[in-house]
Structure formats: structure tokens, C-alpha cells
Design goal:
thiamine biosynthesis, alpha/beta, ATP binding, UDP-N-acetylmuramoyl-L-alanine:D-glutamate ligase, 8 helices, kinase, hydroxymethylpyrimidine kinase activity
């Protein structure tokens, strides 16, 4: 059978743990054929981001046109956009109906603290998303309000959903909720809390990229959003668990995308 095609529009991670590289690993792990459009090249590893080179909007558009003219893409996820001009180019494609099942991962700040995107770029694209997947820091940046607990995550999810995306899930891996990792999903069916055991590990580089990529695959395969999000959370929990004892790099290591650790 011909595999389902999914597209990622994001930055490159030279360390392989996040960005385009992580997205393509997730696509392959979950049985989809991955295509890609690079928005930026970064110099980074598990310790942090050393440099970012945004690509010209024309180059991004040319990549996008090339992929979409030849492949039947069933779902699209965006990550690091880099500049408002690149976001505008992607938004134009979304307005034209060329980006089905769009999952917007509003990458604004890396775990190292290095800024990878600007709020204006993400805001330009959010209204066209089927699903938006901000973490607590990104939700705070986009709403202008603190997001430090589950109640504030819920408020942020509702506020962001009112601005465009059909569904918003604010991920709570960085929010203190005891032994649980709690995410807040808000959409047409109301608000739902998704809970999973918190995985004690420092190896969490690329968690957000992997989560949104997994959602995109499940949407491409026909899952409704709540089912896709639940499956993606289960996948990321397994990937975190598998890599918790790895020693790849000296900082925050990557996930076990392929289940190598069983």
C-alpha cells in the first residue's frame, strides 16, 4: 500500500533531536511518509542553540510549491517559522486551502532559552490551524498572561481558541502538577484534561515537535482531533520513557522515537 504523506514546515536541528529531523523520525515511526520544507538552519546540540539562519521567504515558498505540486499531502505541521515574512508565505498557502489538517506548533523559545521565533509570525498562522499545540511558555507569550498551573493553562487554551484555531492543546510538561503531566485540550466539544504519569528524565529535547508531528500523522490517517491528541500523548510518553537513561550529548537529550529501548 502507498503510505500516507505528511508535511513538516520547520527549522533544521543539527543535533537531530528537534525540528525537521525529529518530525521526520516521528512520521516514519508512526507509518507515514514524510516530506519537508525548511524555514531556517540552526547550529544546535543537546546543550543549546548556537546560531540561527532564517531562509528567505522565496526559498520557503519554492520548497512548498515543489512538494505540494507532486505529493498528495494529507496533513501539515509547522514548527519554527523564524520570521513574519515566512509565516506570511505559509499563511497564504493555508488561506488557499493548500495545507490540510494544519497543526501549528508555535515554536518561540528552545529549551535552552534561545529565541527561535517571533510572536508576530505565529499569530499570523494561528487562525488557519486545525490544532495549535503551545507549551506553557508559548501560551503565555501568545496571550500575554501567566501560564503556571492547570487553571491558567485552561484559560490560555480558551483564549487562543477564540482567536482562530479550531482546537488548542496547551501542554503542561513544564508545569508543576505533581507526578502527572497534564495537558489542556479545548475545542468545539469543550475542555478536557489529558493526564499521564510524569516521566523523570532530563532527555526531553524535541518533545513539543514530536507531539505535534504525531498529531499530524494521526489526523492524516483519519482520526478525529481528540483521538489524535490522545494517541500523540501516549506516543511521546513512551518516547520519553525509552530515552530516560540514554547518554546522547551532555545536555537535554532526544527522545526514543523508534522504541529502541523497548
Amino acid at each position: 500500500m502507498t503510505p500516507t504523506t505528511v508535511l513538516t514546515v520547520a527549522g533544521s536541528d543539527s543535533g537531530g533531536g528537534a525540528g525537521i529531523q525529529a518530525d521526520l523520525k516521528v512520521f516514519a515511526a508512526l507509518g507515514a511518509y514524510g516530506t519537508s520544507v525548511l524555514t531556517a538552519v540552526t547550529a544546535q546540540n543537546t546543550r543549546g542553540v548556537d546560531a540561527v539562519l532564517p531562509l528567505p521567504p522565496q526559498t520557503v515558498t519554492e520548497q512548498l510549491d515543489s512538494v505540494l505540486s507532486d505529493f498528495t499531502v494529507r496533513a501539515v505541521k509547522t514548527g519554527m517559522l523564524g520570521t513574519p515574512a515566512v509565516a506570511e508565505a505559509i499563511a497564504e498557502a493555508a488561506v488557499a486551502g493548500r495545507l490540510p489538517q494544519l497543526v501549528v506548533d508555535p515554536v518561540l523559545v528552545a529549551t535552552s532559552g534561545h529565541r527561535l521565533g517571533v510572536v508576530a509570525a505565529v499569530e499570523r498562522l494561528l487562525p488557519y490551524g486545525r490544532v495549535a499545540t503551545p507549551n506553557s511558555a508559548e501560551a503565555a507569550a501568545l496571550t500575554g498572561a501567566p501560564v503556571t498551573n492547570v487553571a491558567e493553562m485552561t484559560t490560555a487554551a480558551r483564549a487562543l481558541a477564540s482567536g482562530g484555531p479550531e482546537w488548542v492543546i496547551v501542554t503542561g510538561g513544564d508545569v508543576d502538577a505533581g507526578d502527572e503531566a497534564v495537558d489542556v485540550l479545548h475545542g468545539p466539544d469543550g475542555t478536557t484534561l489529558l493526564r499521564a504519569p510524569r516521566v523523570p528524565t532530563r532527555h526531553s529535547h524535541g518533545t513539543g515537535c514530536s507531539f505535534s508531528a504525531a498529531i499530524a500523522v494521526r489526523l492524516a490517517l483519519g482520526d478525529p482531533v481528540p483521538v489524535a491528541v490522545t494517541a500523540a500523548k501516549e506516543y511521546v510518553t513512551r518516547a520519553l520513557t525509552g530515552a530516560r537513561d540514554w547518554e546522547l550529548g551532555a545536555g537535554r537529550g532526544p527522545l526514543d522515537h523508534f522504541g529502541w529501548s523497548g
